[in-house]
Amino acid sequence: MPESQERVKAALSPYLLVAEVGDQVIGFISGSVSISDGMAVIPEGESYLEVDNLYVAPEFRRRGVASRLITQLLAQAKQQGVAYAVLYSAAKDIHGILRFYERHGFQSWYVRVFRKL
Q: What is the pTM of this model?
């Protein structure tokens, strides 16, 4: 028997949002909450949301879908008392990704670079 969207969300994660157009899933975001054991930017004992995945289908990118997903997820976490949010990203257009997250209030605190020799 098909489940309601709310029951599916609850079974998968309280921090899972899906973007749809009609009956087509065009994107999603998911995260999990943890308690810091003390890291450079999050004090020990503070809760934080780790954004695990953010994806929007290529044909729906640059239309504000990702912005709506991240904004809603962060608001939900804040409403539930979560103090911080972190995420890791790997992309060919790292500068574009950084600009996107900076527009949503994130700051860089770690970088890893590479080159071919």
A: 0.84
